[in-house]
Amino acid sequence: QKLWLDLTGLCGADRLWLDITGLADAIRRDPQFLLIACVIVDLIGLASYLVLLLGEVTDFVWAPIAGFFLQYMFGSLLITSLGTIEEFLPFTDILPTATLAWCLVHLESLSVIRNLLGVPEPPSNEVLSEASEKED
Asked: Does the pLDDT of residue 27 top 80, yes or no?
């Protein structure tokens, strides 16, 4: 399955769709790009504190988006649940959930905790490239 982004309203074209599946897979495949994406997701969640009290209302919009990102990038229901709940709860946006999830998945020193929590290891490049070839 491909993930399509409808950009029709942004550019004034009759129909403009962008396939972002390839970009998302490339980010998921490269640990450094994934770390940058995680930091950006955490900064967007933290930006809700810029507007006093209104920020907690915006979390109801941002929480499902952050949850989708965590599920797509890490494939762990535990990480997705914790990240979504953290975004919904008031005054918890200071926790960098996506960045902590990246550390849990990619740092070998946290492998004991990763195994205890049942969080999957990051897929190898061969597994991701085989999955991309099967979709095409």
From this structure: yes
